[in-house]
Structure formats: structure tokens, C-alpha cells
Amino acid sequence: MTTIITVEGMTCGHCEQTVTEALQDVSGVTDVTVDRENEQATVDGDADATSLVEAVEDAGYTAHI
């Protein structure tokens, strides 16, 4: 399953890396691609969407499905 999350507040490559790492730590995630210019994170795997949003928000960014 692929989930696309809108992520607001990323301004640089470090931000992308922080969001990527936060999402990779969620159980069930198999692959993550983060694009700060489009404000999106594409997540593959069977992780719960709520858990993904919470992980991004815990990393300091605004997120929603």
C-alpha cells in the first residue's frame, strides 16, 4: 500500500532527511521518498496512516493525509 502525506515546513535537504528517518522508524514502512518542493512524502508499506502523520509531527513538521 502507498500512502501520500502532505508535509509542511521543510526548507532544506536536512529537513527531508529528518522526515525520511522519522517515517522509516514507523513499524510496517518499507520505503520512503520525501520531496520538499512538492511538500509530499510517499510511503510504501502497511503502516497506519495516523502513525505516519504522528511521526512527522513528532519530528517538528505539520502533516496530513
UniProtKB/TrEMBL annotation:
<dbReference type="Pfam" id="PF00403">
    <property type="entry name" value="HMA"/>
</dbReference>
<dbReference type="GO" id="GO:0046872">
    <property type="term" value="F:metal ion binding"/>
</dbReference>
<feature type="domain" description="HMA">
    <location>
        <begin position="1"/>
        <end position="64"/>
    </location>
</feature>
<dbReference type="InterPro" id="IPR006121">
    <property type="entry name" value="HMA_dom"/>
</dbReference>
<keyword id="KW-0479">Metal-binding</keyword>
<protein>
    <submittedName>
        <fullName>Copper chaperone CopZ</fullName>
    </submittedName>
</protein>
<dbReference type="InterPro" id="IPR036163">
    <property type="entry name" value="HMA_dom_sf"/>
</dbReference>
